[in-house]
Amino acid sequence: MFIAVYEFEVKEGMEAAFRESWLDFTKAIYQHCGSFGSRLHQSEVPNVFVGYAQWPSREQWEKDHVVTDELYKISRQKMHDCLLNSKTAYKLEVCDDYLQSSQAQA
Q1: What tens digit of pLDDT does each residue of 53-102 get?
Q2: Domain ranges across the chain
Q3: Cβ distance 86 to 6 under 8 Å?
Q4: I want to staple 79 with a disulfide (CB 3.0 to 4.6 A). Which of 8, 14, 21, 32 is the partner?
Q5: Per-residue CA distances from 41 to 2, 30, 94, 106 (Å)
Q6: What is the helix (H) or strand (E) element at residue 9, kind and residue range?
Q7: In the chain, what is the straight-line distance between the N-terminal and C-terminal CA atoms, in Å?
Q8: Global pTM?
Q9: In this predicted model, what pLDDT tens digit does every residue of 40-60 receive, in sequence order?
Q10: According to the CATH classification, is domain 2-91 in 3.30.70.100?
């Protein structure tokens, strides 16, 4: 499994619009590009967010995805309009995995 970690610096006052467009864009990537989805995290800095996206492989992530879906195009543009800066902070291969979807029973 391949993980891409992104850092987004959002224009002041655009945080809600960014989060909404990020979600729509992420849904479109999931539906059309073969990702496993993503999570968005608020950092300690109010306008800095970190996204964590899972892919079946680096090759799938790097693939030139030609997406003609209107929601994809619109949400991508709206998301980018909210940004001061963005970058792919890390490109990671999973080597060990014990992430669970529920808490252990005590």
Answers
A1: 999 999 999 987 888 889 889 999 999 999 999 999 999 999 999 988 88
A2: 2-91
A3: yes
A4: 21
A5: 18, 18, 20, 28
A6: strand 2-10
A7: 30
A8: 0.89
A9: 999 999 999 999 999 999 999
A10: yes
Beta bridge partners of 99: none
Partnered with residue 3 across adjacent β-strands are 54, 92
CA distances from 40 to 15, 50, 64, 105, 106 (A): 12, 6, 23, 27, 29
From CA 29, how far away is CA 58, in angstroms rounded? Answer: 15
Nearest to 7 by CA among 27, 18, 16: 18
Tell me 33's DSSP state. Answer: H
- Residue 18 phi, psi dihedral angles, 5° rounding: -60, -50
